[in-house]
Automatic annotation (TrEMBL):
UMP binds at G55, D75, T136, G137, N138, P139, F140, F141, T142, T143. Pathway: Pyrimidine metabolism; CTP biosynthesis via de novo pathway; UDP from UMP (UMPK route): step 1/1. The keyword Repressor does not apply. CDD domains: AAK_UMPK-PyrH-Ec (cd04254). It comes from Chelativorans intermedius. Keywords: Allosteric enzyme, ATP-binding, Cytoplasm, Kinase, Nucleotide-binding, Pyrimidine biosynthesis, Transferase. This is Uridylate kinase.
Length: 249
């Protein structure tokens, strides 16, 4: 394990669904507090951290569309769910002394600042954790795409996807018992084999911008910092062989 983190600036995508803990819906504050502690650990390593949180613990637009409702309105509701989650994470971070700011893709000045690439970069340079709320601000997208987009905009070295499972498998491990877990994959293979750990738009954007994606379990306490230090269980999605060698060393 290396003491020097191998990434200087990262975006962490946090599963919205993970925030509900065992409740089945909404926010379990103890889970948010634990994720905040993991982010604090990464900051203590000197890594600049941007965060995108999903909304699956509260609302997904497809839920409306599948019942014959208006998809765009459903997606607006989903994006608002991500703002709620972002405000919860900011509260948990501030509580433990980590400077954090929420920047929303949808203007709501009474609640938080609006996103701009310039402001986000300035806050990150100043060492604040920047929480990107409201997804991309557009319907028909997901927070995975928002995470890849923000990672490209702020020049992140890697996109960490903290999700319900500990890596990318040959099939959804929650549905297929004998699914095989991969340590390393290329973006191209993830897309070609339709490995649905992230939506295709997010993978494509990361690939075009040479951003590695690191998939790990958000439930693993200390997992984020461990991977930053070169240890920890994860799948690395990267097209740059030299980069993969560096991970191995
Ligand atoms: N090939 C695969 N490898 C790993 N997980 C997979 C694969 N295919 C599907 N999955 C499933 O994808 C899930 C992650 O998808 P998704 O991004 O929708 O959830 P999330 O990370 O909880 O995000 P959110 O709740 O914010 O939408 C995993 O929990 C896993 O069950
Ligand atoms: O850019 C975006 C991001 C999200 N949405 C809507 O929000 C929900 C929640 O996000 P998840 O990524 O599924 O956690 C999503 O289902 C969409 O309905 C969006 O419209 N645009």
């Amino acid at each position: 394990m290396s003491a020097t983190p191998r990434y200087r600036r990262v975006v962490l995508k946090v599963s919205g669904e993970a925030l509900m803990g065992s409740q089945g819906f909404g926010i379990d504050v103890s889970v948010v507090d634990r994720i905040a502690a993991d982010i604090a650990e990464a900051r203590a390593l000197g890594v600049e951290v941007g965060v995108v949180i999903g909304g699956g613990n509260i609302f997904r637009g497809v839920a409306v569309a599948s019942k014959g409702g208006d998809r765009v309105t459903g997606d607006h509701m989903g994006m608002l769910a991500t703002v709620i989650n972002s405000l919860a994470l900011r509260t948990s971070l501030v509580k433990i002394g980590v400077e954090a700011v929420v920047l929303s893709a949808i203007a709501m000045p009474e609640l938080c600042e609006s996103f701009s690439q310039r402001q986000a970069t300035a806050y990150m340079n100043a060492g604040k954790v920047v929480i990107f709320a409201g997804g991309t601000g557009n319907p028909f997208f997901t927070t995975d795409s928002a995470a890849a987009l923000r990672a490209a905009e702020i020049g992140a070295d890697a996109l960490f996807k903290g999700t319900q499972v500990d890596g990318v498998y040959s099939a959804d491990p929650l549905k297929t018992k004998d699914a095989v877990r991969y340590d390393r994959l290329t973006h191209e293979r993830v897309m070609r084999e339709g490995l649905r750990i992230m939506d295709t738009a997010a993978i494509a954007l990361a690939r075009e911008n040479n951003i590695p994606i690191i998939v790990f379990s958000i439930h693993e306490e200390g997992g984020f910092a461990a991977i930053l230090k070169g240890a920890g269980r994860c799948t690395i999605v990267d097209d740059d062989p030299a980069d993969l060698d560096a991970v191995k060393a």
